[in-house]
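Tokens for Glucose-1-phosphate adenylyltransferase subunit GlgD. Go.
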Amino acid sequence: MKGFVGVINLDHELDQLNELTYFRCGAAVPFGGRYRLIDFALSNMMYAGMEDIALFVRRKYRSLMDHLGEGRPWDLDRKRGGLFILPPDWHDPTDTSLGDLQHIHNNMDYFHRSSGDIVVNSGTQHVNKVDFNEVYKYHKEKGADVTVVYKKVAELEPEHGPCRRVEVDENGYVSGIHHERDHNNIYLEIFIMDKALYLDQVRYSIAHGKSYFFRDVIQHNPNGLKIAAYEYTGYNAVINSVESYYKNSLALLNPDNYMKLFHEKPVQTKIKYEAPTKYLESAKVTNSLLANGCIIGGEVENSILFRGVKVEKGARVVNSVILQKCTIEAGAVLENVILDKDVHISGDRTLIGDVKKPYVTAKSTSV
């Protein structure tokens, strides 16, 4: 089988999680107790055997770089190949491209030097366990130029609104890609194609004044490419708003959802060596997910606590997502709340949000 060349394209992903993306890009947002959203795409690529993975980043990527390091958790700390974090080069006098085509144009060396022959493109707003080897097998069986990955959802949710939809004919090929909101085939921001064809299409699109690869090459398809559609049937969560982040975070408290996402092939993330969570005699914890390093003296119910959270005796946390190293003092009550990292809640404070619109505090604030 030909080798893969990975691309995680963050260029088109908007930072729409309000307070959670004030200081970081969406791909770096913590999720699931100890992960970041980018961990899921990286882990999928790792399990497909990818040795070259590029991240196209444009803004607010300091937190992302700190999290990824040299890529060791995903076996990408290599002498040859590995993980490449590629911002656009603004000083190329020959550059006439725009959008993510500018990113590709200014980082052509990555594609020329990478050993793989098949480009796998992914975003980070869809949390799933797509098997790229299975997608490639289907791609070859169909004899396609491009294969896109979609999921047919049983019920459309608000977070599906911005997603592209995929029309599929009876033979498994794409007959249209659009934004019609009443269509249930959700495009997962994943496609694969031959590297040589990919680069040809990049050059053609730039020469014709285009800006975005997927829209101008695949969706509009001016060159008549044969596009196949692979249906992914596993777990998928769309994270493109505070509301979808909150809903899909708490959905992990359902054991079925948790097992679908984390069982069999573990999701890899940055390693931190911390003591296990400490439960004091006064602690009461029900139906919650707690990471390492927490100290719990109060009540935690239907909530997710990240590493190093402190809940003092007499405090109560319900239906909430508490990110790293937050402190909740005695007597405080939190319900339907998201706290970003390093938030300090003083004693006897009460914060109550709505199930459909949680109360959110920004990083490093005190209440």
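The mean pLDDT is 94.
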